[in-house]
Specification:
Helix content is about 65%, strand content about 0%. The protein is mostly helical.
Length: about 220
């Protein structure tokens, strides 16, 4: 296309567009690196068993001390926090047995403190019986306002005195429920720690993946 003077009016051609980059494959999640089995021997499998008894000990035994310390502090901290919130009544709650099972996954803390809680059951029952027997009776029918106020003041003073002398009588269901959850979460976290250690000691999932890759490469050759 030209004008009257003979100049070319054709618009310059645009340079070719650069090709789009090829989509990058999303890397698969990495499994825990397996430890050399020949260097661990039976110690690695013993560590898996002891990882339940003492949270974090299994990673210590296989040489991963930093990881083991973090796990130990976290799990023990959760369990102690649950005890501080709910006391020994937070262990093995009869209304919620699922938390009893998960709490036993935390290992030695649950075994020790649950034994203490069971030993205190008889004491708690006896304290409640004594409390009910010695508590001031309620007012009789048609009491005067003065009698009502007097009996109520006696019962309140008696209750405060017993709670001060015997903290086991205190009962706070909501706080104890929260404590039971904390102790149960500690057990579930320890279960994940045991699985992490199992993968690191055995390395079975990663080994199988590497074997498939090596076999595919051999077949292609």
């Amino acid at each position: 296309m030209t004008d009257s003077a003979g100049s070319d009016l054709t618009p310059p051609s645009s340079p070719p567009a650069a090709p789009l980059p090829a989509p990058q494959p999303v890397p698969a999640p990495r499994l825990p690196a397996p430890l050399p089995a020949e260097s661990l021997g039976p110690v690695g499998y013993l560590a898996i068993v002891l990882a339940w008894m003492v949270p974090g000990l299994g990673h210590f035994m296989v040489g991963q001390k930093t990881r083991g310390l973090i796990f130990a502090l976290t799990i023990h901290g959760l369990f102690v926090g649950g005890l501080l919130l709910g006391g020994i009544k937070a262990l093995s709650p009869p209304e919620q047995p699922i938390w009893t099972y998960t709490q036993f996954l935390s290992g030695w803390p649950m075994l020790v403190f649950n034994k203490v809680a069971r030993a205190k059951e008889a004491e708690i029952i006896q304290l409640k019986s004594d409390y009910q027997a010695d508590r001031p009776e309620e007012w009789k029918s048609n009491p005067s306002p003065e009698e009502q106020a007097q009996v109520q003041a006696q019962r309140i003073a008696y209750g405060k005195k017993n709670l001060t002398q015997h903290p086991l009588l205190s009962y706070s269901p909501k706080i104890q429920d929260v404590g039971a959850v904390y102790c149960g979460i500690a057990g579930m976290l320890n279960l994940l720690v045991i699985f992490d250690l199992l993968l690191r000691v055995t390395g079975t999932p990663r080994d199988s993946g590497e074997n498939k890759k090596s076999s595919s490469k051999g077949g292609a050759k």
